[in-house]
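2024-03-11 09:14:02 INFO worker-7 job=invfold-0412 stage=load source=structure_tokens
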């Protein structure tokens, strides 16, 4: 039986008990220990149990991985394959991901606490889809000939950059890695991937599947380890051509500094968010409430584009607050392996402490509508209730700062201009949502919102076909879509006189 939607908690538990964890560094097509011999524990936040210990990569391991990636790039074993040949390998990888959805989903769920049903129906199939999409696109991109006229032929071609360093977060471990790897590999680059220390397991399995699909050794290397050592070493490495990052704004700024202080490598950043969700009185309020709840409670609110700020017209504020409190009551966390659970634990106790700190500050700055407590469950202290605040000061920390947890603030506005001023009053500009039945208002408000993506009458609209990324301190550069190839290639002109 392979229909993951029919799996029971007992089915998932049985599969979890039978899992084998890949826990070494992956360099040059082989699993190797860290040069230092150091290891770190991978802990299941739902139970506090240690899953396995993982090789802790450091600067020496990053060096070896970059050297392996460089060799692979220079000898052309992948970089000089035709786009159609690369496509075939990546399509096989997509197929292997599909065959291994339950295992990949479990790895992410156990490693960082997301619901396994979501990992099995969204994250893992999404990863297969994104590999397939970029693979299928790569042999359909044409290069250019400049209109020079005369006895000149000026060809403008996209060429791969060389060695890409990719540093990714723990909230969608498999998908955030895939968003970088699929376009980077399709364009012919070699990659050194550093997964987050909280969630290295799916990336290590993915590397093995890529080898099985026929990706040559050295083209994809995965170095698990901590940010300040492995991450920083990659960011500062003199032989890395481009560093792509998804994570917090604070660390994104560090990568800009690392690049400036080393070899001026290209840096592309997908960073934090504090996305507003504007509800006008003519909206379908039930649909808006359903999607707003998804927008903040999906993945425990650990989503960069989470709709963490609801801005609602004063005339419907009380109705919306009631609706949201009812939705929050249905979003209580439970065992991530239980298909009946609505949320899992946060990624670890440390992050739960941070979120509880925000909640404590919210209690001082406004009115707690619901939630606001930690939940003790099994041996874990990483569970936090879905929480809603209103009547907040505009300068409250819960309104201004990214919480990255299941915490929603609700503020009211009286006019469209006021709504826009509040929405745009943020250092972030990743995503936004607008709810209205008035098409003219939907378009004019969308135009004036600072955001990489504006969703109208939905939240967090996203697909392989559309670019994803932010403005302001949410970063720059785009993942997904044809435009993602821009980050992984340079335009090269070859001018021939004849
Ligand atoms: P983080 O910035 O702490 O860590 C992200 C990665 O950076 C990890 O691999 C980590 O090991 C590494 N890192 C940490 N410190 C480092 C350092 N000093 N030098 C080099 N590397 C370092 O972020 P996180 O807590 O893992 O993830 C949450 C953040 O990610 C949130 O801010 C969220 O908004 C953001 N995020 C953004 C997007 C997007 O597309 N914009 C998507 C998902 C998550």
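2024-03-11 09:14:09 INFO worker-7 stage=emit residues=498
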């Amino acid at each position: 039986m392979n229909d993951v939607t029919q799996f029971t908690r007992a089915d998932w538990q049985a599969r979890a008990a039978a899992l084998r964890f890949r826990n070494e560094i992956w360099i040059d097509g082989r699993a190797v220990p860290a040069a230092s011999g150091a290891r770190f524990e991978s802990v299941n936040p739902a139970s506090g149990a240690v899953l396995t210990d993982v090789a802790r990569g450091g600067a020496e391991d990053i060096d070896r991985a970059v050297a392996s990636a460089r060799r692979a790039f220079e000898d052309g074993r992948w970089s000089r394959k035709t786009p159609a040949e690369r496509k075939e390998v990546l399509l096989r990888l997509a197929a292997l991901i599909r065959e291994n959805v339950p295992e990949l989903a479990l790895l992410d769920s156990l490693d960082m606490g997301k619901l396994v049903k979501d990992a099995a129906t969204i994250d893992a199939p999404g990863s297969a889809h994104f590999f397939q999409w970029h693979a299928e696109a790569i042999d359909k991109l044409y290069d250019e000939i400049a209109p020079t006229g005369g006895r000149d032929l000026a060809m403008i071609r996209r060429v791969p950059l060389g060695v890409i360093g990719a540093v990714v977060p723990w909230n969608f471990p498999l998908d955030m890695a895939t968003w970088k790897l699929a376009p980077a590999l399709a364009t012919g680059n070699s990659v050194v991937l550093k997964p987050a220390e909280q969630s290295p397991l799916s990336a290590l399995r993915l590397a093995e599947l890529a080898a099985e699909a026929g990706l040559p050794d050295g083209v994809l290397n995965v170095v698990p380890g901590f940010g300040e050592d492995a991450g920083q070493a990659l960011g500062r490495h003199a032989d890395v051509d481009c560093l792509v990052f998804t994570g917090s704004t604070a660390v994104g700024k560090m990568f800009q500094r690392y690049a400036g202080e080393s070899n001026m490598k290209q840096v592309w950043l997908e960073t934090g968010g504090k996305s507003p969700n504007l509800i006008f009185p003519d909206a379908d309020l039930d649909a808006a409430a359903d999607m707003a709840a998804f927008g903040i409670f999906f993945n425990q609110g650990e989503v960069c584009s989470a709709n963490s700020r609801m801005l609602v017209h004063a005339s419907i504020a009380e109705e919306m607050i009631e609706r949201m409190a009812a939705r929050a009551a249905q979003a209580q966390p439970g065992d991530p392996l239980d298909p009946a659970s609505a949320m899992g634990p946060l990624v670890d106790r440390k992050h739960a402490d941070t979120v509880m700190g925000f909640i404590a500050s919210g209690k001082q700055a406004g009115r707690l509508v619901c939630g606001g407590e930690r939940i003790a469950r099994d041996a874990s202290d990483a569970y936090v209730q879905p929480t809603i605040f209103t009547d907040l000061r505009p300068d409250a920390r819960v309104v201004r700062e990214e919480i990255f947890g299941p915490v929603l603030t609700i503020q009211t506005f009286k006019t469209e201009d006021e709504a826009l001023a509040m929405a745009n009053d943020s250092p972030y500009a990743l995503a936004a949502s607008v709810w209205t039945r008035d098409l003219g208002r939907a378009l004019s408000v969308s135009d004036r919102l600072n955001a990489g993506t504006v969703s109208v009458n939905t939240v967090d609209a996203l697909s392989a076909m559309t670019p994803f990324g932010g403005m302001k301190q949410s970063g720059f550069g785009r993942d997904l879509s044809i435009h993602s190839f821009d980050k992984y290639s340079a335009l090269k002109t070859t001018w021939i006189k004849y």
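2024-03-11 09:14:09 INFO worker-7 stage=report msg="Residues 116-138 form the longest helix (23 residues)."
2024-03-11 09:14:10 INFO worker-7 job finished
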